Amino acid sequence: MGNPWLKLTVLLVMWFSLGCQLSLGADTISANQSLSGNQTIVSSGGHFVLGFFTPGKSSNYYIGIWYRKVSEQTPVWVANRETPVRDIYSSELKISDGNLVLFNGSQIAIWSTNISSTSSGSVVAVLEDSGNLVLRDGPNSSAPLWQSLDHPTHTWLPGGKLMLNKRTNQSQLLTSWKNSEDPAPGLFSLELDPSGTNSYIILWNRTRRYWTSGAWDPQSKIFSLVPEMRLNYIYNFSFYSDENQSYFTYSLYNPETISRFIMDYSGQIKQLSWLESSQQWNLFWSQPRQQCQVYAFCGAFGSCTEGGLPFCSCLRGFVPKSNVNWNLSDFSDGCERTTRLQCEEDPGLATGKTDKFQESPNVKLPQNARSMSVGSISECESTCLEYCNCTAYAYDSDGCRIWMTELLDLQQYSEDTSDGKTIYIRLAASEFPSSSNNNRIIIGAVAGSVGLILCLVIFAVFRWRRQRMINPKVEGSLLAFGYRDLQNATKNFSEKLGEGGFGFVFKGTLLDSSIIAVKQLKSISQGEKQFRSEVSTIGMVQHVNLVRLRGFCSEGMRKLLVYDYMPNGSLDAHLFQQENSEALAWKTRYQIALGTARGLTYLHEKCRDCIIHCDIKPENILLDAEFCSKVADFGLAKLIGRDFSRVLTTMRGTRGYLAPEWISGVAVTAKADVYSYGMMLFEIVSGRRNSGQHEDGKVRFFPTSVARVITQDGDVLSLLDTQLNGDAPVEEVSRICKVACWCIQDDETQRPSMGQVVQILEGVLDVNVPPVPRSLNVFADNSEHIIFFTESSASQSSQTRSNTSNVSSQAKSNTSSMSS
């Protein structure tokens, strides 16, 4: 039996080390139990935990539910979000008078389920494996008295409802946290539209609607303004409505997926899935797409700017009201003046000083302006000065408008946007330098400058050529090079790296020893101003998987682009190499495919305007020193202009990657890039061109082989580049082959977006077996018709259009969606 005193000692040690958790059921709080300190209860399947937690570096504690199998503590529900506690050991959560109640250290009830119960002695609280905390009248009761899914905070869990009560016209709300360390209700909330449109809306401060999902389409099961749901492979939404209520709910196609839908404190709704491999939450989808589309995100007198972090900044003459909140990305408090207005300090204008106005061009004007009937901008300014509470004015073709309130929802547009207006912000006179100070500064600056110029002028003349090469003229974020400078840098364009339909590429070295790649363009007909405008637009597009444009040269008909040099060249040089040379490892190939997809996703979905590459192929995927893939030539379609369609059909290296819609003559979308990307994936797997002559003399089309192996559950490793000797994970090869087959579907609506391709390759989304494209069945085994994939001559165009039309119509009726 052993020593009984030793056993008792061990039990006592275990009791205290577990924080007295032995007094609680595994997933239940009974009438005679309480939860305090570090005690927790865990759902029966081990998915969720209920207990006290503290967010971030906060010193406040809250009762909440979080994921047990996620290493990063992620609360999905908070009870006392407005009334935190400081001492968790003197606070307790327990059943009291038939309710679940949280008492603070002074034994004051600060949160309760607030229901009426006649049998309080048998009530229990149970944490279910869905993350739902349920209050029941006894452990064997099935009907809940109360449940947390009916009272969501900022997270909408699978199985939960966001409901509209038609009798009271009240909606259940999903309300954001105030910031990452404060779960108190924030300014942003999601609800089902009370007007009965069967759409969701996001509100600012429960008053201002700034986003809607559009109406629900019961047939396609998507919201009309959220087309991304069309190829959603994670969530299964459903809608229910009767005379009492309407609500949406959703489930997961794969129950093992850990996913959540939140109303974020950024003012965006987000769907996120947990990636165990990278130990982080992966963003699946968010709305509104742009941060500055969130109403008043930067608060009063704050300005929102897309394209960089932080998004918010205070206007000149203003500072954040709360630096603490500002550092937590909570900008809702806005900004306040650094100096009081002159009209407030000196209402009688005894000093003779008046407030002045700071010009802010190219902005989105706030709303709630008051129109004034005046005839000039000076009269508009004078009108604003008449009112001490007038904060700004604007004068343009729409007349004079003044603002008598705090300025909300200001947005600073980029320089290439012509939608902006000019607003004049009222500031105290002391915010502007006086004219006498200006004169002294100007006189001193002129005198110093003259002396300096006299000392440097001779030296500058001799150094001018060298300096211009090392430090070319800066235009926006790009450098403007001289043609002769690039001619010298490339040794008169002697070291050619490659060529394509748009021109030739040469290696060059600047005098600061930096290595560049210079593309000499042809077929460029734009004028000087148009070319510079186009190049500036492309220069703003920056992503780790896009080749960076460093600068340009535009001198008459000479048009050149200067890029970063990629030491490992283009992907085709590594894929289609001699058999004795070293082949790319599978891991490298997979990362190249994923990086390319990320770059295309940025072009299609993240830029201000969707950019269609139109020429995806291994030759246009460059590799840096670490074999990180960089999509090249992504802006040339925009530069080429109207001649691009003609150039594309005769371009070297493009044959074999053209989507059917190019040849059929219909307008193309970003799905044309998806098709080309899919064709390239096949070549990444096989290490050879898709169409080629085999030992038996017959022409084989590799995508057909892949489709047959995938649909017949064959050996996917047999598709692999023979130089890899089968050294690749089966699941990754299968995944990339399935994605490739989905990408080359005849009907472009059946192809995934590049964003979905990224999520599939990352393992976030599952991908089902694709249907075999009809075009593969019709053309692939007939060498006469393989021309469909490799040529686009005018002599074949009419017959091809007819074939493509027939194939597409059959494909629409015979293919199924990726998630079916």
Structure description:
25% of the residues lie in helices and 27% in strands. It folds into 5 domains: 22-147, Orthogonal Prism (Agglutinin, subunit A); 152-289, no CATH class; 340-432, Hepatocyte Growth Factor (3-Layer(bba) Sandwich); 473-564, Phosphorylase Kinase, domain 1 (2-Layer Sandwich), CATH 3.30.200; 571-814, Transferase(Phosphotransferase) domain 1 (Transferase(Phosphotransferase), domain 1), CATH 1.10.510.10. A hairpin with a 3-residue loop joins strand 18 (200-204) and strand 19 (208-212). Strands 28-27-35-31-36-33-34-32 form an 8-stranded mixed sheet, with helices on one face. Strands 37-38-42-43-41-40-39 form a 7-stranded mixed sheet, sandwiched between helices. A 4-stranded antiparallel sheet has the order 1-10-11-12, with no helix packed on it. The two termini are 61 Å apart. With 820 residues, the chain is α+β, with helices and mostly antiparallel strands. The longest helix has 36 residues, at 435-470. Helix 9 packs antiparallel against helix 13, helix 9 (586-606) packs antiparallel against helix 16 and helix 13 runs antiparallel to helix 15 (730-743). It has 19 helices and 47 strands.
Radius of gyration: 33 Å
> Quick one: CATH superfamily of the largest domain?
Transferase(Phosphotransferase) domain 1
Low-confidence stretches: 5-23, 458-471, 642-653, 779-817
The assembly state of the depicted protein chains is: single chain
Give the tally of β-strands.
47
Strand content: 25-35%
Q: The biggest beta sheet, please?
A: 8 strands, mixed
Q: What is the CATH topology classification name of the largest domain?
A: Transferase(Phosphotransferase), domain 1
Question: N- to C-terminal separation?
Answer: 61 Å
H/I helix tally: 19
- Describe the global form: globular
Q: Averaged pLDDT, please?
A: 81
Percent range of helical residues? 25-40%
Strand order within the widest sheet?
28-27-35-31-36-33-34-32
SS class? alpha+beta
How many structurally independent domains?
Answer: 5
Shape-level CATH architecture of the largest domain: Orthogonal Bundle
InterPro entries: Bulb-type_lectin_dom, Bulb-type_lectin_dom_sf, Kinase-like_dom_sf, Pan_app, Prot_kinase_dom, Protein_kinase_ATP_BS, S_locus_glycoprot_dom, Ser/Thr_kinase_AS
Organism: Hibiscus syriacus
Catalytic activity: L-threonyl-[protein] + ATP = O-phospho-L-threonyl-[protein] + ADP + H(+); L-seryl-[protein] + ATP = O-phospho-L-seryl-[protein] + ADP + H(+)
Family: Belongs to the protein kinase superfamily. Ser/Thr protein kinase family.
